[in-house]
Amino acid sequence: MSLKARIQEDMKAAMKARETDRLAAIRLLMAAMKQKEIDERIELDDAGVTAVIDKMIKQRRDSISQYEMAKRMDLVDKERFELDTLSAYLPQQLDEAEIDAMIEAAVQQSGAASMQDMGKVMGLLKPQMAGRADMGAVSARIKARLAR
Q1: For FRET with 5, which of 88, 94, 108, 114 sits at 20 to 30 Å CA-CA?
Q2: What is d(CA 109, CA 85) in angstroms, rounded to the nearest whole number?
Q3: Which Pfam families does the annotation name (predicted)?
Q4: What average pLDDT does range 55-66 have in this prediction?
Q5: CATH topology of domain 3-87
Q6: Is there a contact between 86 and 109 (Cβ–Cβ < 8 Å)?
């Protein structure tokens, strides 16, 4: 079953179970996916759906930090629930040792020797890690590795 079909089935299940909060989060995801399909005139595959989910998760994390600074805990809780709901659709996350091993392999493969070569390394890693790791954290690790 494709990721998109799984999300649609989960939406139906949430409707039947009358889980309003979960249904709202899934509907937001479905709307974002539909918008991407319409904007780019494409049919999203699992990688495209994962990219949409990644973007929405990043937005939720940003919102949570803003709401925490404003001391709006009601909105923080809502965003955290949506974050948890969206995270369930991502593939298994990579652990730190796997990320480090992939970075090392990409550095070796690209022949990167300095910070100017960071784009080459990111270009190799991004398709492999899409949805499986926070690319911001990966970028910081690559910078640390290339600075050695």
Answers
A1: 94
A2: 36
A3: YqeY
A4: 95
A5: Hypothetical Protein Yqey; Chain: A; domain1 (1.10.1510)
A6: no
CATH domain 96-147 topology: Arc Repressor Mutant, subunit A (1.10.10)
Please count the CA atoms within 13 angstroms of the CA of 83 that sit on its side-chain side. Answer: 15
Global model pTM greater than 0.90? no
Domain boundaries, the chain: 3-87, 96-147
Question: pLDDT tens digits, residue range 67-114?
Answer: 999 999 999 999 999 999 999 999 888 999 999 999 999 999 999 888
Backbone angles phi, psi at 51, to 5 degrees: -65, -40
Residue 34 has pLDDT above 90, yes or no: yes
Which DSSP state fits 93? P
Alpha carbons 77 and 114: distance in angstroms, whole number:
42
Give the SS3 label for residue 91. coil
